[in-house]
Amino acid sequence: MKQKIVVALGGNALGNSPDEQLKLVKETAKPIVDLIQEGHQVILAHGNGPQVGMINLGMETASKSVAATPEMPFPECGAMSQGYIGYHLQNAIREELLNREMTMPVATVVTQVIVDKDDQAFKNPTKPIGAFYSKDEALKLQAEKGFDMVEDAGRGWRRVVPSPIPVDVAEKTTVKTLVDNGHVVITVGGGGIPVVQEGNRLIGVPAVIDKDFASGKMAEILDADYLIILTAVEQVAINYGKADEKWLSTLSIDEAEQYMNEGHFAPGSMLPKVKAAVTFAKSKPGRKALITSLERAKEGIQGKTGTVIMVQ
Amino acid sequence: MKQKIVVALGGNALGNSPDEQLKLVKETAKPIVDLIQEGHQVILAHGNGPQVGMINLGMETASKSVAATPEMPFPECGAMSQGYIGYHLQNAIREELLNREMTMPVATVVTQVIVDKDDQAFKNPTKPIGAFYSKDEALKLQAEKGFDMVEDAGRGWRRVVPSPIPVDVAEKTTVKTLVDNGHVVITVGGGGIPVVQEGNRLIGVPAVIDKDFASGKMAEILDADYLIILTAVEQVAINYGKADEKWLSTLSIDEAEQYMNEGHFAPGSMLPKVKAAVTFAKSKPGRKALITSLERAKEGIQGKTGTVIMVQ
Question: What is the pTM of this model?
Fold first, then answer.
């Protein structure tokens, strides 16, 4: 049965340099195109942690010594990363489609995700971005620019930004129009460029929206059947790495919430994925989330592997 | 009468920093939205000279001192500039539309423009990009990376890249679908990310496609009625800056070709604009090109000002 599927790809799967990314996206394209070849409608979302970090650090470094390179705010760096990643990703998918004699268009939409300016996350920035600094430099940045700076695990001081939850996608009509017309769309890159709404204006804010939450929001908006969250493992486990480790084929909402409360899933790793999966699965009867590895995505949709999260 | 219009905006009109750009796009949005309010379908193209230069220089500078920031190839910098400029431009237009109670979606499509790998331009790179170098550094880059380096008007040595003519737009179906569905689309930013086709693969090449030519190609593909090329002056002039200077309201193809041959238009300035205008006007009966200033675009379409280039 033909399904509408939002696939969330990890930013770490894209590599740390343009050369690495060009190679990795070729591998990434194959299982994605497998899904398309099965007849599914695929919308592709992706992370951008290493890439936006690289761009931010690059522009920040250059701004200190070169007058012609101004400092680049974080939302603008996110917009750049969407162009950079989308360009490679759309080409790899296009080529893989053509290799299989499929001619549907592939395109990247520069996408902004709207967050609530009263989101509690703005009072508690937690997401480290950009360069490492000495304590003196950090305190100077804090005083001069109002950045929130924290000491990061003995490696130096870093800026932290909030991670608010996604409320809406500014370019949702564009994405929907393209999906309805059979295009493969790359969207909400890096969780989307974070913006708040003030009247008719969208204003970029220094923040990182979790790409799994943004993908789930996009999947809700598009009325997708599936949200696939790709990760390094084939299934979700409880008691992960312990003697009584147990891999899960299905996970009800109640079980997922119980396991989250019991601390089975690592924050910043499996926890946000399970949370995003639960949020999507609860949003409407029949919606399913699947957590699996990139390589297993096709078999996951066929019910052969992965962890399916759904209302039971 | 409702017209389909591709508007080509100069990269210089966008400013040299994110702050400048944010301010300038607000002014840019007004005359663009004037056209939309008149009932026209508007497709927006833009240059990226200062912006891609800034990004390229920033990443290049940082790559010399910071291991985590690799060198960024020129096409990837172009993709970044599309995200960066598109993000600001789409927001400014969206806000101006909403201020006038118009709700059509606005979106930026990451756009690649296909060039011919046998284009003669590849044998004669002329377009300077990126940083200035000493002669020794320049010769080293030439030897190590195969860059073409030239001495630039006494200011130092710079890399030059070819400026091939656009053959096709990879994302044309996406742009067409959105335009047909009433979206305002920002596309072929900076003349598009330059790519050559090898079998099913698109490969980025270090080159700069003239944004007026790319806009004209996009206008041909979309079967637009008008190509508007925005510039600093309200009309095209012959004998520009001389005693017998003459501003032109219309320009036939024959006249345009004669004036080009007579050297009336400055290379790198008015000449490519007139050339792109002629190419579009000749491509199909009824197609018109208009060269005018941003502020006069609406009156230009109404026939009140600007220089109209058409088959007569």
Answer: 0.96
Residue B123 is among the residues annotated as catalytic for this protein: no
Chain A residue numbers with beta carbons less than 8 Å from the beta carbon of B58 are: 58-59, 61-63, 66, 69, 72
Cβ pairs bridging A and B (under 8 Å)? 179
Q: Please report residues of B whose CB lies closer than 8 A to that of A53.
A: 68
Q: What percent of chain A has pLDDT over 70?
A: 100
Shared domain check, B176 and B223: yes
Low-confidence stretches of chain A (pLDDT beneath 70): none
Whether residue A307 lies inside any domain: the answer is no
Residue A234 backbone class (left: φ over 0; alpha: ψ -120 to 50; beta: rest):
alpha
Q: How far is B309 from chain A (nearest CA, A)?
A: 33
CA distance A48 to chain B (A): 13
Compute CA distances B131 → B1, B138, B158, B160, B208, whole Å: 47, 10, 6, 11, 16
A204 and A240 in a single domain? The answer is yes
CATH of the domain at A233: 3.40.1160.10
Which residue from B151, B150, B152, B158 is spatially nearest to B129, judged by alpha carbons? B158
Nearest Cβ partner for B177 among A58, A80, A178: A178
Model confidence over B158-187: pLDDT tens digits? 899 999 999 999 999 999 999 999 999 999
Domain residues for A68? 4-114+167-292
